[in-house]
Amino acid sequence: MARILPNECIIGDSARAADAALLFLIYPLEVTDAAVTAEIIARVETELKGEVGIRRYIGDSFWCADYDSQLPENCRTINVSEDMTARDALVRPGEEAQWCLFDPLLSTIFGRRFLAGGNPIHHAQQVHYFNRSLGQLTTPTEGGGELLCPELYYLRQGRFVPNDVTPLLWTQANLRVALETMAAACLQTLGTN
């Protein structure tokens, strides 16, 4: 890991430099040092943070723009580990899916930093990502119900909509941890005023 991080992988002469899945190394695994942690977060915020959620990585074809109308259902559900050519042909830069499980994860990471050190900048970052997480909850007219945690939002005919994996329990669990961390941060803030 020390040779690869903060990249997600290195294959030959190329590397995937930013991948939001690396956030799980920061929390809950806690296996990165301060420098690697800072670089992973910086790359996620500058390269992957989107309007609605956070892209997994640049060029991720999973639920890219108009995924469900451009790719037949039998091609969406097959094992793409061996050949992602059809799927990858659909993705255009900036039109990758924006996942909902990473914003609450960042809220938790910044909240834990705030709880440990009391830095108000960390609390502001915690609140920012928590509010983004709440903004991702479905409305009554989308995603099969109100206030559900989607897997991701993708562009359908130019508009971000939740995909059909709603609710996603993984997103729900991350939001719950973010909520608990937010409650602890609020109590700490009230205790210091």
What does this structure look like?
The protein is mainly alpha-helical and 193 residues long. The chain has one domain. It is 45% helix and 9% strand. The chain has helices spanning 23-26, 34-48, 67-70, 73-76, 85-88, 102-117, 120-135, 169-192; strands spanning 9-11, 14-16, 98-99, 152-156, 159-162. The protein has a 3-stranded antiparallel β-sheet with strand order 3-4-5. Helix 7 packs antiparallel against helix 8. The longest helix is centred in the C-terminal third of the chain and has 24 residues, at 169-192. The chain is globular, with a radius of gyration of 18 Å. The N and C termini lie far apart (42 Å). The mean pLDDT is 92.
Write the layout of secondary structure elements.
Layout: E1 9-11, E2 14-16, H1 23-26, H2 34-48, H3 67-70, H4 73-76, H5 85-88, E3 98-99, H6 102-117, H7 120-135, E4 152-156, E5 159-162, H8 169-192
Antiparallel strand pairs: 1-2, 3-4, 4-5
Helix pairs in contact: 6-7, 6-8, 7-8
Keywords:
193 residues, mainly alpha, three-stranded antiparallel sheet, two-stranded antiparallel ribbon, 8 helices, 45% helix, globular
